Amino acid sequence: MGNPRAFLDIPRKEAGYRPIHDRIHDFGEVEQTLNSNDRRLQASRCMDCGVPFCHWACPLGNKPPEWNDALYNGDWRKAYELLTATNDFPEFTGRICPALCEKACVLNRMSHEPTTNREDECAIIEHAFEEDYVKAAQPERNGKRVLVVGAGPAGLVAATRLNRMGYEVVVYEARENAGGLLRYGIPNFKLNKAIIDRRLRLLQQEGIVFEYNKKVDIEKLPEGFDAYVIATGTPTARDLSAPGRELKGVYFALELLSQQNRVLAGMEFSKDELINAKGKDVLVIGGGDTGSDCIGTAHRQGCKSVTQIEIMPKPVEGPEDPRNPWPAWPRTLKTTSSHEEGCTRRWNINTLEFQGKGGKLTGVKVQQIDWKPNPEGGRPLMVAAGKPEVIKADMVLLAMGFIKPEQPKVAANVFFAGDAASGASLVVRAMASGRDVAEKVDNYLIK
Asked: Would you put residue 42 in left (φ > 0), alpha (ψ -120 to 50) or beta?
């Protein structure tokens, strides 16, 4: 510890967001940055705990005490080397990770002011790019080839690790560019796509070959490779089979989010294809991060209003959840930058029917519900708790998660990674899975 009293004398200071009146008019990143002096002071707050729960909580096994100490001491290169020893793409997690390490931080238990690990790691990697610390590796080839199917976070990490082990790596991606949900699901106001492009240029310099618009049948994989990594994510969104689902104006969340990101990338859509919330009353069904991203996107498109409903009860308000105590992740009420921009939020709401006129959506019939214990155990029972009502809506966005894909029987040299293996989860968990699968592939091929 460079300053053993820092956690007592220096309060937590976050970079914060751009002002609402400014940020809702563009898709630029909403999060600001601290100057280097304040960032080093924040890093000094890390206590180098005897039992560092941050290590345990991070799926990647990141070591914040080590790189925070290097950052505080001004050794940015060492901080970068320590950070990237466990995290292949800190520029992604430093922007969009929910920071499991911070919720497990001992300072979070003491004062609910954990070390700013997520912001610190983003600052470290951005400084590394600015100072040209980040170099393309040129590994010695071992003569074996691996095909990675899917260029999302899991596939990119697996490709990176295998490439640096010496394998010739080819990545097939079904879409027109790499990144998976980083590119097509997460709005630019959270992750500017130039950040992804910067990393892709490095991976290509390292020898990874990317082939786009390549759809692959997992049960009929192309020949010519010694091993295969399947990192195709969870492509099937959970639907809502209520009457009126076919009305124009009801969309999956990713239909809006992916199209908006493509528009920002220069792609054009016809009037009939365009999904836009301008001047509309928008209803988001689903209370997670994807729903939040829909809210922020709808505001930037010029919506009239946004309402978000969730079928589950309202989470606990406050920093702690008695049902999920420290150091585990607290399931408490989360208010995002998008929520701050304006949104009516409601919980325990069940969707009954989509209503419309002339084939177009006009409103959604919903009902307040309660959850009662199931006398037979298992999932609680949903019971009506109020009269049905209609929420006016010209657009509905379904953000209820994704269905875990079924894994067919495959040969011994085929490995599943990320959401394709576990079902929908966090980007940081997908990255950890990609790293673990790369090691499994290596162990298999060096037998």
From this structure: alpha
